[in-house]
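Hi R.,

Here's the chain you asked about this morning:
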Amino acid sequence: MRLSRIEIENFKGIGNRQTIDLKPITLLFGPNSAGKSTILQALHYVREILERQNPDPDLTIAGGLTDLGGFKALVHNHELDRAITIKLVIALSAELGSERLPLNTGGSLDDPEFENLSVRYMLGENTGSDDRTVVQEVGAEIEVRWSDLLAGAYVSTLTIEMNGALIASAKSPPQAGRAILTNFNFANPLLQQIMYKDETVTEEELKGMHAQGVDELTDDMLDDPLASPLGSEIWEVSRDMALENTTFKGHDFRVAIATKTSALPDPNKLLASDLRDPDPTKFEQEHSTPRVRGLAALLDELLLGPVRIVSDYLGVMTYIGPLREVPARSFRPRLSPDESRWAQGLAAWDLLYSDVKGELIEAVNHWIGDEIRLNTGYRLEKAAFRKIQVQGPMSLLFTRGLTEDDLGELQDLYENLETYVEIALRDFEKGILVTPGDVGVGISQMIPVVVGCLTDGTGLLAVEQPELHTHPAIQVGLGDLLIHAVGGNQPAFSSSKSLLVETHSEHIMLRLLRRVRETSEGELPPGALSLTPEALSIIYVESDADGVTFRALRVDNEGDFIDRWPRGFFDERAEELF
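And the predicted structure, written out as tokens:
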């Protein structure tokens, strides 16, 4: 799966809603302080809300210099009457669905709890028979407001979409026990099947009725909402179901749901909803009939399935900040994984030190040492050492002078010495080993980016200024590294990793544009990776009195820009040359 779109409103410098379409490789360009980092901070903010249920965070899970400062610092112009709105859209892979979204596999259809449901399950009986039976993308939109009553921020609305259309919304005032699930969109093709009652009507006949107009859709073909396992004390139902252009309007269904003073239920728990079976012939407790349990599971999946997918995706996001630490001479890796160390780049060194088989180090050396790649003139080497304690038993033997009788004891002492490992850089030209702190800072800044691109994993790799302190010749090589990270030369860029890169590097972009042109013309050099315009998004970020604007610059098959570069294309070059 892949993050395909972000929509942001009233967040930091962004006032009016901005929509950012992401591709496997997305580059963010723009002046300093224009708002390029706003996208990354919005992702950190949503993660804090979903994982920690904290809409008013300062320090984040991502660590590093990412201090959001709380809602008051995040809301546009610090105006507390505004609502921050962030929507994330995830494009799903074909196999997704067994856990977070069972409806994508149809697995829940065999559950006995669905046998007595009067509402038909979303997939219907012909699983996979047409596009309406598969969820191809999910969207979750979170609206956060300030409450004087709470003296803090809270999630006022959670809106869920599937396949680009509304499913339902959860809403809540800043009071506990007031959250409701409402705004159901029964016109969504994924939900329309549950409206049909006459199972003798074939799907082809239903399609024909749609084509002929809504007059053919009569009431005896629609399920009565009151026949579903929802009591009148839970659902507030308007029976006025106006039909216009095959869109059902005028109905207002509401289900009470359990939350903590917000519209966001805990994604780590099953959705608790107040459902009761109105069937007077029921033989079980009204809250535990198969109908109630089945519908409760359906509502949980509809509302929280997409939320869990978004949360899972952000949970495996890797964020590499703009200032990476140079490992000290006394550096010791963390034995327990700590994702917050990625922000300063130290998690990359942790992985290199723990690389027992040497496969990661070999892959990194392939990129930093190869002449047709980054060609830095260095390679990583892992060296093992033994510690001899001053004034220790072995030192005392040497101090007094060794005799032949000491050899056995000396052998035992040597074998019991504490060992440790250090990773150093081999200078090709001089043939010597140096520590990361002894070489130019650009090499140490680049290593975490290389490791992040080469490490197996899914989700998003977000990098700020990958080119920091590196030579232009290395920067163009970083362009090829980005293509490799997202699965260049694989069909449709099948890698599950995507990149969001904030950069000022013209050289990285020029290499990517060159690969697009060479791919189109069939002239890729040996060992080069292919790239198509469909896998590349270049966003220019600018700011004015009205707020931050994100402008997509389309690229054609020749590697040229279709859209005009705002304020010219790297004006400084033209000014200096001409």
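The chain has 13 helices and 19 strands.

Let me know if you need anything else.
M.
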